[in-house]
Amino acid sequence: LISSATSSLRMETEILEKKLREAQMRLAEKDEDKEKEIQSLKRRVTELEFQLTMEKNSSDSLLGNMRKEIQHKAEELEKLTQERTQLIHNLSQVQEESCLLQETVRRECQERCELTAALSQAREQVLELKKLSGNFS
Fold this sequence. Notes:
InterPro entries: LEKR1 (IPR038799)
Largest sheet: none
Protein name: LEKR1 protein
Keywords: Coiled coil
Number of strands: 0
Shape: rod-shaped
Organism: Indicator maculatus (spotted honeyguide)
Number of helices: 1
């Protein structure tokens, strides 16, 4: 009975040891698979970090270029605004000059009309005097 029980226990022990070895092998395989997956994920993270760094550098470069362009455009706008202000000022002066010249021309035309009228009147008076002096002779 003891021999049978011992034999039965040995068989059961062997079966359990075999199951333990199989479980340990499966566990080792799973550990190996997990390690491979971890390494793969680490590589992927490294790749993504590199890609992120490259995109960040590209964005920073683009942002810097845009800032320079905005600064350039702002300076150009300021220059054009100053030129516009100067042109408006010049236009105002030219308009004032034009008004002054128009007024001068108007006055000179009025004076010319007055002088023409005075000349016509003087001619008439000269003709009158000639007629009168012709009558006296």
